[in-house]
Design goal:
There is one protein chain. The longest helix is centred in the N-terminal third of the chain and has 22 residues. Helix 8 packs across helix 9. Helix content is about 30%, strand content about 25%. A hairpin with a 2-residue loop joins strand 5 and strand 6. It is an alpha/beta fold.
């Protein structure tokens, strides 16, 4: 079994210290595979004077060249032929451009082990049937976004009775219908089965405020949950802090803070980060996070804010081994949380455009574009 296979089957999902060497081997194996089979990735590493065999110690992970997510939004960059990719997913494309990421069978198998362990740890699996309101896109054959696949997957944590979607595909585009969602919530609230929400926090919050403005305050069935993922996207100006969100959920639905769960991830880094009971994103064994200085790109110590560099050997079909996001974040020591998990946790502060930051990450993108005229 490969090092990545063993890593994604590790029992303790937050045992970073106990998996550092295994993680290093998995990254080195993945890097060597990308180097052998992807000409453009090899060109970027060669230009940086880096080769896979330079990953000898755990500290060498910080030297691994990374690719900016902006690159994947402008170019298809695959390490395997498309027929070997069991699943292809795209980013939400709120800025008009999509990242396109392919997943081979081995990568999907790694992901399945990860999801089972993370969701079990957060106690989200249940044999009790639930009604679902999805504050996201209703699946459609033209929709390949990872956020749509993830939201649908979350409705499989329990037997699903009914699904109502906030974003319906009509006349060639998606439109939000919060009035229909509000009616469905009132109907499901009368059921003896729990109601679970899944999707964008923005639409979830808008629906709660709509009900509150109409004077409709509900008490959802016992064991109902609110699951959030995907961020506020284009509604960043309307974003409220978590305390306001939790208080609104309690007033409108009678849902306690402990029954609100949040996920973090990206199609370019398909690792499932699930918050703890204190609502912090602890780093699982499947990934490592480096916070880098926006000016120098040097790693910063815990507690300092910088650009979020995400590393994972989960997938071989696409060179997403190490990606630089356009998120600003802080990595905190695990002991600061108070939930009992010692793994460091990631706090996302906000988002910046890589176009606004002149970094060697952007330089890497330019280099790859020049090699052979792009990746398409």
């Amino acid at each position: 079994m490969s090092a990545a296979g063993r890593l994604f089957r590790h029992r303790d999902i937050y045992d970073l210290d106990g998996t550092n060497e295994l993680f290093l081997r998995a990254v080195r194996e993945n890097c060597a595979y990308q180097y052998r089979h992807n000409d453009k990735y090899r060109a970027m590493l060669d230009a940086k004077g880096f080769s896979p065999d330079m990953l000898q110690t755990y500290e060498d992970l910080a030297r691994l060249p990374f690719l900016p997510t902006l690159l994947f939004k402008n170019h298809e960059l695959y390490t395997m032929p498309k027929y070997r990719m069991i699943v292809k997913a795209t980013s939400s494309g709120t800025g008009g451009k999509f990242s396109r990421i392919g997943f081979e069978l081995g990568g999907l198998w790694n992901g399945a082990h990860m999801v089972l362990r993370v969701i079990h740890r957060r106690r989200l699996f249940s044999a009790v049937p639930c009604n679902y309101v999805v504050f996201g896109y209703k699946p459609h054959r033209s929709n390949h976004t990872a956020v749509t696949k993830t939201a649908f997957g979350a409705t499989l944590f329990t037997p699903s009775l009914r699904r109502t979607y906030a974003l319906q595909y009509r006349n060639g585009q998606y439109t939000a219908d919060l009035d229909a969602v509000a009616e469905a919530i009132q109907k499901y609230a009368k059921s003896r089965f729990p109601l679970r929400f899944m999707g964008f926090p923005s639409y979830t919050y808008f629906a709660m405020k709509l009900l509150e403005e109409r004077g409709i305050l509900l008490r959802l069935p016992k064991h109902s949950k609110i699951m959030l993922g995907g961020g506020w996207k284009q509604f960043y100006r309307e974003e409220v802090d978590k305390r306001e969100f939790y208080d609104t959920a309690k007033r409108v639905f009678g849902v306690d803070e402990g029954d609100i769960v949040e996920f973090y991830g990206a199609v370019e880094h398909p690792i499932l980060y699930c918050d703890c009971e204190k609502h912090h994103f602890h780093i699982p064994v499947y990934s490592r996070v480096i916070i880098r200085d926006p000016e120098t790109l040097q790693p910063l110590p815990n507690g300092r804010m910088g650009l979020v560099n995400l590393i994972s050997p989960m997938v071989r079909a696409t060179p997403i081994l190490s990606v630089m996001t356009d998120d600003l974040g802080v990595l905190h020591d695990g002991g600061e949380c108070g939930c009992g998990c010692n793994s460091p946790f990631l706090e996302i502060i906000g988002r910046v455009g890589l176009k606004e930051i002149k970094t060697c990450a952007a330089g890497a993108a330019e280099l790859l574009i020049k090699q052979g005229g792009g990746a398409k």
